[in-house]
Amino acid sequence: MLFTTFSVEKSLLYYKGGEFSAHNSWCHRRMFHKGDYELILCLKGPIYLQVGDKQLTLQANEIAIIPPFTQMFGYRDSTSPVDFYWLHFFSQTKESIFEADEAAMLSEIKTNKNSKHRLSLPLHFELRDYEGATILIHQILSIHNELSSIEERDYLVSALLIQLYKSYFNRLDVQGNSSKIDDMKEWIRANMASDLTVAKIATNMHLNVDYLTRLFKKCTGMTTLQYLNHVKIEVAILLLIRTEMPIKQVADAAYFNDPKVFMHRFKSSTGLSPSEYRKAYNLIHLNNPHVDPQIPIPKRIADSIDYIPENGNVPE
Fold this sequence. Notes:
Helix content: 40-55%
Largest sheet: 5 strands, antiparallel
Number of helices: 11
Strand order of the largest sheet: 2-9-4-7-12
Distance between the termini: 31 Å
Structural class: alpha+beta
Strand content: 15-25%
Shape: globular
Radius of gyration: 21 Å
C-alpha cells in the first residue's frame, strides 16, 4: 500500500480549493501537479482517476491524495452525478512516498518510533468518519482572509491532515471491535429521532452498559452521550452549510425537540449561533467549469518554498 509523509512541524500551506459537481457525463481533465499536493474528498461517485500509472475509482466518502510532480486525468466518464471537494496545498518539508503494510505502520506508531511531527497517510482510503472532515474542508474553503496577517487556512489544512491521520489509524487500532462499533453507530443514527439512552443502546446491542461505555470511549474518544450530541451537532452543521433550510427546520432535522436547547448546545459546541455559523462558512468556490483553475502561486508560498516551480498544465 502506498503512503505519503506529511511534516506538520511547520504548517502546511493552503493554495486553492473548491467544490465541484456535475449531473451529466463528466471526465476529469488532464493535469500535472508541479509541487502541490491535491486532496480529493468524494461526496458522490464514482469518479475514475488515473494518477501516474495507477487507476483509482473513488466512491462516496473516499479520499485520494495526489502527490507533487504527478500527472492525473479521468480514464473514463462518470455517467452518474458526481460531487467532490478538492484542496491543493504545499508542504514546507520535502516529503516521501513509500510502500508499507498497514499493520507494520500501526505498530510503528504505537511504539512511538515515528516522529510526533510527521504523519503518514495512504494515497487512497475510505474515510469512515467523513462528517468531521467534510465540515473542516468546508470551513477552509469558506475563509477569505486576504487582509489577515495570519493565514488561518494553513493551520486548518494541517488540522485536517491530523484528523485524517487519527481517523485512519484509530480505525486500524480497534479493528477487532470496529464492526461492533460501526453497527452501534449506524443503529444510533437510524434511531436518533427516538429518545435514546445508554441503557437502550446497550440493550439493542446486547451489551452490558459499563462495557459498552468503555468500548465506545476506547474506539471513539467520546462517551456514548457525548457521541449522541456530537452527531446531532454535525447533522445541524451539514444542513446549515449545504442547504438553505430555515434554522427551526435545521433544529428539527438534527433531532432537537426544543429549538432553545438546540441554540444553546450549538453555540456551546461551535462558539457561534446557527445563523452566525451559516454566514461565516457558506461562501466557497463552487462548480468551476475547469474544476481546478490555474492561478499563480501566492507570494507567501513562493517565499517559504523556493524549490517549487510554478503550477500549470502538463508540459509539452
